[in-house]
Amino acid sequence: MTCPDPVTVVVAARGTTQALPGLFASLAVQTYLGEVDVVVVDHGPRPVIDATALSRWWVPTQVVHEPRPGLSHAHNTGIEAATGRWILLTSPEAIPDADWVRSMVTALTHSGAILAGGRVLPRFTAARAPALSSDGLSLFMPTQWPEIPCELEPPWELSGCNLGMSRDAKLRFDRQLASSDQRRPGHGAQELTARVQRDGHLVTVVPDAVVYRRIPPQDLTLRALWRRARWHKVPISRILRSPQQTPSRLGGHSGDVW
Fold it and tell me: Which residue of 41, 99, 104, 223 has the fewest CB atoms within a 10 Å radius of its CB?
């Protein structure tokens, strides 16, 4: 029996491990039968994350430091440090489903795509989930997903907290955009997917590779939503109008505190 290819999960942590226990707990119970290790990118001016503090989560982990600002730099550093045949990118706030790694690797292996993106769903940490319009929820994650795996095309979008790629493809995020730090929504996953498709490569959407993104109450205050709307260039009036969808209808969960 052939052993499945090893997988490296890359996550950029901004100088703290506070948000990582939930992520590591999910990675420790993945159904994928191959080896899964983690590269934590200590993203900040000075290294502050102690690698020994991560050993208690029983997932092979290495910590690398990236002092340059911008998530693109952090993700590129993590990708360069990865040793797995497949590389998955997520965020400290993510809670991957137990089948996440297996679903993503299966899609990459059989589709011929060099880049894939899974579904992102909300997980509100407040005891009572808020009602957000789809426009409001779109400030945190894409809100439209296909029912079956398919080639990436509008209106589908990929999220930087749920990406998969082949290490052989040597994909990297745009360093110039990272250095300019323009904070444009087109950075990261959107820029990478557009470039990969422009070069004639296949990008696939994997709706059954699910990651839940934790959204704390402080991110849902009027001030916080206004800041996000301004960054995404979305009129605040669209965020405050009557909700069209609730988290439950979008597949999200509430009441989970990690």
Answer: 223
